[in-house]
Each structure stands twice: as structure tokens, then as C-alpha cells.
Protein: carboxypeptidase T
Organism: Ureibacillus massiliensis 4400831 = CIP 108448 = CCUG 49529
Amino acid sequence: MNAGNKVYYIPRTAFTSTKEKANIESHLQGSFPRTIVAENDAQFKDKSGNVLGSIAKGQQVKLHMVNGGRGVIELFGKRVYVDLSNFKHIDQVLPKKNISYKEMEYHIKVFSYMYPEFTKLEKIGASVEGRPLYALKIGNGKKEIIMDASMHAREHMTTNVLLEMIDEYTYAYINGKKYGTYNVKALLDKVSIWYVPMMNPDGVTLVQTKANATAATKLLNNGSVNYNRWKANIRGVDLNRNFDGGWITKASTKYASYKNYKGTKAFSEPESRALRDFVAKHQFKSYISYHSSGSVLYYFHHQTSTQLKRDLALANSIKKVTGYSIMPPTGETGSGASADWFIMNYKMPGITVEIAPFQGETVVSLKYWDSIWKKNKTIGLLAATEASLR
Ligand SMILES: [Zn+2]
């Protein structure tokens, strides 16, 4: 094998077994292999960790998967292991497709392995079915903001928005490049962004694959096995009605359902508790929650005076970039929405961004992706900038 300007012999035993390849790659179809670039001369090893050679700085290789914290790459048709912190990506996330929970998990692991110097990956809890809920921080800023997506299952395109932000912002950060008018590294080293790209992985899995559909989910779906309209978590609680923003007076369906049931009490669900407990450990300057219906922004939950002025100003600057309309205050006092809980509890801006035109009870068509991305690509940096000033 030739790597850089040297020739190496790689023993057959170093290669990934066909079985392992099939297991790991089966759920990553379409997301690999992706090209990565050596940031330094980077050793490559066999499965047991024996050094086989090194890849010259600047050389491009194909990343096929991650395994035990290491990258599995292909060199001239053979698979070997590398420490991904010696590499950087070019374009990791392909966003114009449905992104599964497994693929989301894969991407955020890849980013955290590639960029340990300015990212941090945390498990913040687990879903009803036991899928870990992840938060990925980018930047070394002491101040922090948080963004989340896919609290409503059928709104899973919002996960694509956050993953593509992570992809492009980390690319700009590591390469010292500007993103639009933003100096990404300087900004994120003032204000870090925590991303929770998929709040409701069980629901998203149900919508995308039906792999976890049961007699119980069918019942909650009014007897239908068309799960495209599913919003709730897997046991029929609408997570965005389960937070305590005056939960007690929030209207609700009476029983668990594919939508609109607020649960037996505030924070009855492991997914909402995970976010609550994670937020409690931080001092977030703002919270941007991504949803997908109606091309509108929500910012109001009974704030007054300077708090109201500040939050409306942030909503207005997001409106200016996205073109989304700002929803006027309603008379509703109680809420189970995560952003309303955040506003009430932390007295900081909580903005709900609805990325797509009204769809009715179904997933957002991928034909909207390009325009949605164009509208939202700078919103993380916009929110970080706003937070940096206070
Ligand atoms: Zn929603």
C-alpha cells in the first residue's frame, strides 16, 4: 500500500470483517463514505492498534464508519483504523434526504471525534424505548445557547437543519473561514452552541421506518398504520405539551394519541425530563426550538417590559433573515411548549421556529429543503451573536 510517499504492507487481518461491515453500514446507506482530509501526518493502524503506516498531511481518504471511537477508512480499497482527531471533514452531512436516528448519531459522533478541541458530545438522557438523547456543543465560548429539533416526530426535517449547521459551522471553524459575514471561530469561542438534533428519536423512527410500530401505536393512531402524521413520543404524549409553561391549564386531548396529548403531569416523559435537567445544569442565553409547520416564529409567553423587548428584537432579527412571520400573543395562559417553559423559568428568549409552509398532517416534503436551508443556515450564528452582546 502506498500512503503519502511511502509504501506499506498491510496484513489481511487488519481489514474489517464483512459481517461487521454489513452490520454497521446497513443503517448508514447514503451517508458514507465521505471524504476526510489529514490535518497532520496521521498514523493508521490495524484493528488491534498496531501502527501500519502514516497518511501524509493534506491527503484525502474515505471515511466509512466509526468503530470504538476510531475512524474506519479505506486506503486503496483496504480498511484500516485512524484517530479521527487528525482529520477534518469537507462535507459530512447530506441533508437532502430523510436522516434516521442512527445516521444522526453517526454524524455527531464523527464530529466529536474529529474536533475534540472545540466540540463536546453528551448523552443527556434516553427515550422511552431507550435510545440515547444527544447534545453536541460546538465552540469554546463560556456563554452558551441551545438549539433543538424533532420534538415532533413528523417534523424530522428540522434535524437536517441542525446537522447541516453543525457541518458547515465546524467546517468554517476548523478552516478559519468566514460564514456569510460571521467570523465563526471568534464567535463560537465567545458563545458556544449546544445542539440537541433529535428530541424524539422513537417517534422519528416510527414515522420514517415503522420499525417500532405495534398494536399500541396503531391504537394511538386511530387504527391507522400510516404514521406520517405522528407527532407524539412513542407512547402518545406530545412532548411539546409536556413541559411546564403553565402545564396545568394547557388544553389537551383526554387520552394518549399521535398528537396533542399533554401527559398525566408536566415532565411525565423521559425526553422532556432529559432536556429540563440538561438545561438546569447550564445558563443558556437563549433557546431556539425547531419545528416545521407554518413558516412562523413564536417568541411570546407573557414576558413584560425589557424582557419582552429583548425577546421580540431577537424574533425580529430571525424574521428578517428567514422571512417567517412572528405570531402575535394569544390569550392562552397555560402552555406545555418547551420554549414557553424556558421563557417562564429562565427569563431568557425562547424562540420556536417553524421552518416550512403549512403541510397538514404529514412530513415536510424534501422539495422544500433548499429554500428551508437558505433561510435558516445562519440562524445559529445569529442567535450566538445576539447572546454575545448580553
Ligand atoms: Zn412541532
